[in-house]
Amino acid sequence: QRVVLMDPSEDPDDVLRANRSREKTFVFDMVFDHRATQEEVYVSTTKKLIGGVISGYNATIFAYGPTGAGKTYTMLGTDCEPGIYIRTLDELFKALEAATEEMDYRVSMSYLEIYNEVIRDLLNPSSGFLDLREDSRGSIQIAGITEVSTTNAQEVPGATVRGNKQRTQEPTAANKTSSRSHAVLQVTVTQKSQRQEIGEEMRIGKLFMVDLAGSERAAQTQNRGKRMKEGAHINRSLLALGNCINALSEKGGSRAQFVNFRDSKLTRLLKDSLGGNSRTVMIAHISPAGTSFEESRMTLIYAYRAKNIKTQV
């Protein structure tokens, strides 16, 4: 459960800074090394959330970290080693089929990306930029997004892989196919009781799986021009997410903290799934390379804060 981060530039003979080592220790619920399989990561992080989604809670899984540390691999995976998207949906359908005696269920999913603070539908990219709207019940909707209703898990991998091909990926100095946008796969499970006399009892559980864009500094990827602008937008939305996480984790403190969800499209979309009746998992990715020490440090501090969020259902 412990990560120890050593500073590669630390000089053992440096007398002045002898007492100020930059070695840091972080404690998390679970730490995986390079030998961990996709299955292990899935079982320890996401498997427990599925029962909650079926009983009407929301759940969110974030993949966070600098470019090239393996976020898209964790979420999407490869054909022979599928990632969290596909494993979660497989399990979700299995659990629903086991519980359908009493309930009629419907599963719908949408897949979108947030790029430069505009929303694009990855399942129907020709629809252009979409708007976020709030409906009368106060829940955030995306006007005009394609929702695919599925009843079996076989259709899902095709849809996510097709959607992922539409993502904005650009080469940076860190990574040839760096994702320059946040991808959000939203799965909504609606269940209705088959027995009429109970009345219309509906359970709605939402599952968000978010593959965030890389959180590295511009100096690391030698970004110029357009890449630099993208990076600024990415960092802005990650900063907004960080601010929301900070405010939520301090909420039990002395002062009532205002949580500014409206700072970016990403946080507005995830408003219900950060606070409230939601279970949230953040999978932080770091690279073992000495050159990305600063990125790793920032990523671990960010994830460590997220751990302190207490939600009131």
UniProtKB/TrEMBL annotation:
SMART domains: KISc. Residues 1-309 form the Kinesin motor domain. Residues 169-180 have a biased composition (Polar residues). Pfam families: Kinesin (PF00225). One of its GO terms (cellular component) is microtubule. ATP binds at residues 65-72. Belongs to the TRAFAC class myosin-kinesin ATPase superfamily. Kinesin family. SUPFAM superfamilies: P-loop containing nucleoside triphosphate hydrolases. Residues 158-180 are annotated as: Disordered. This is Kinesin-like protein. It is found in: Cytoplasm, Cytoskeleton. Keywords: ATP-binding, Coiled coil, Cytoplasm, Cytoskeleton, Microtubule, Motor protein, Nucleotide-binding. GO terms for molecular function: ATP binding; microtubule binding; microtubule motor activity. The gene is Kif19_1. GO terms for biological process: microtubule-based movement.
